[in-house]
From TrEMBL:
Residues that, per the record, bind 5-phospho-alpha-D-ribose 1-diphosphate: R100, K104, H106, E126, D127, L128, I129, S130, T131, G132, N133, S134
Record field: catalytic activity: orotidine 5'-phosphate + diphosphate = orotate + 5-phospho-alpha-D-ribose 1-diphosphate
Ranges where the Phosphoribosyltransferase domain occurs: 58-156
A GO term for molecular function: magnesium ion binding
Binding positions for orotate per the UniProt entry: S130
Organism of this sequence: Flavobacterium restrictum
Protein name, as recorded: Orotate phosphoribosyltransferase
């Protein structure tokens, strides 16, 4: 679910402007999972544009507090959400931790890096939601460390049905600054794509795992 429509449209436009989101229906990308995709999203680019990263930081900060209440800690999911998560924590005057995909193999073997006390209320910041599996693994790691998860806030989601089901099953509330539907609507309105390309992009979104095979 998006925080609000105005933010969703503005965020989508900014992501397209800096090529953080690339639409290429005619020459699909191949994801690490092997899926063929007419869209590629790299939200790490946001950090290289001060005005845009500040916009994302501010929208996260006000909407997180509005939706979840002010948490005790902000947690970023490594690696994509470490930078923006730390900016949000700084803006809100809160401690910050981040979650590795798996525990370190040496030293203290931490998966959650930073100081976290049992029972603290945590909002998790993520850069991108596809199936939601890796994001929810981070949530589980935080729960095992004793955190009380208030919810997750992400920059963008592809809006896959499987992701919605995964978050529902995990009983985790997910809110995003923007999503696929708002992105495609804006791309059509601003003539980033043709009607034919729009049809391809919507078809892919309905059957992403088998599209193009």
């Amino acid at each position: 679910m998006i925080f609000n429509k105005d933010t969703a449209e503005k965020t989508a436009e900014l992501l397209l402007q800096i090529n953080a989101i690339k639409l290429n229906p005619g020459n699909p990308f191949t994801w690490a999972s092997g899926w063929k995709s007419p869209i590629y999203c790299d939200n790490r680019l946001i950090l290289s544009f001060p005005a845009i990263r500040n916009y994302v930081r501010d929208e996260f900060s006000k909407n997180i507090e509005k939706q979840f209440g002010k948490p005790d800690v902000i947690a970023g999911v490594a690696t994509g959400a470490i930078g923006i998560g730390m900016l949000v924590a700084e803006s809100m005057g809160l401690p910050f931790v981040y979650v590795r995909p798996e525990p370190k193999k040496h030293g203290r073997q931490n998966q959650v890096e930073g100081f976290l006390q049992k029972g603290q209320n945590v909002v998790v910041v993520e850069d991108l939601i596809s199936t939601g599996n890796s994001s929810l693994l981070a949530v589980e790691a935080l729960k095992e460390a004793g955190a009380n998860i208030k919810g997750m806030a992400a920059i963008f989601t592809y809006g896959f049905e499987v992701a919605e089901q995964n978050f529902k099953n995990a009983n985790v509330d997910l809110f995003t600054l923007s999503n696929y539907q708002n992105l495609i609507n804006l791309a059509v309105a601003k003539k980033y794509i043709t009607e034919k390309e729009e049809a391809t992009l919507r078809e892919w979104n309905a059957i992403p795992s088998t599209w193009g095979n």
